[in-house]
Amino acid sequence: MTKPPLTVYLAAPRGFCAGVDRAIKIVEMALEKWGAPVYVRHEIVHNKFVVDGLRDKGAVFVEDLGDCPDDRPVIFSAHGVPKSVPAAAAARQMVFVDATCPLVSKVHIEAQRHADNGLQMIMIGHAGHPETVGTMGQLPEGEVLLVETVADVDAVAVRDPQKLAYVTQTTLSVDDTAEIVAALHARFPAIVGPHKEDICYATTNRQEAVKAMAPLADAMLVVGAPNSSNSRRLVEVGARAGCAYAQLVQRAGDIDWRALDGISSMGITAGASAPEVLIEEVIDAFRARYDVTVELVETARENVEFKVPRVLRVPA
User: Fold this and answer.
1) Distances in Å between the alpha carbon of 165 and those of 12, 94, 134, 181?
2) Does residue 309 lie within any of the structural domains?
3) Is residue 308 included in any domain, yes or no?
4) The pTM is what?
5) Closest C-alpha to 267, from 285, 290, 243, 250
């Protein structure tokens, strides 16, 4: 039986970013250096396939530092942690390695600098997301106010409208964030913004690739985890950019084939914590059902690399 033709538009950049690559490497190198088990506070990155693979090698994932023994190394996830966490680890004389993405650490430093200058912080982010919790936890309670929407900007109660600064989560929708920033400037004209945009290069690049790809495709799949902020934003960006069907899938087994009935073109991308092997798995699933032609939609090239902490680069 002849397979129907299908053009697969493959977004570039897609998948792993430098911060995710570094975080995974940190866990692998810690296991090589200290042996198993190595404890990791929170999922190192938001991807079940990656986390399960590291668990198989001897990583133990916990949500609280209290679940870690004193005599084993602990790694803090790429999303960052409140200041109280490394302080508690140091008080217990634990060996700990911070895998916080350097671009998230940049936001932490920014927030502290503004606070040192007497400014109250407003953070644009998602409540409960570990990156938001970590950034807000850099300063004392009440010093960072969270806004998620333009409506939140209208309602936020600040100490002094003349002494404000804002930071953002690194994985937000570029367009949505621009609207919130505009609302902040309209209500608080004196507010101080980041020296350079907080939304990271990888988030921006993946969203731009989706914007270019979405109008070409009848449907679009984003390979990523449901708790991955940047992956969920890619689905929203795709839908907004004109793709009639945009869906998040963790693996090829999650594809809803009935929803794709009758398509002749398909867009595929992946969030920053999804490995290329899962993207290939999805393309292979389409090849099993269609005569696939793959076309690359490339909007940027990335050559960013972050060093792992020195403690992992020196012998035990």
Assistant:
1) 34, 35, 18, 11
2) no
3) no
4) 0.95
5) 243
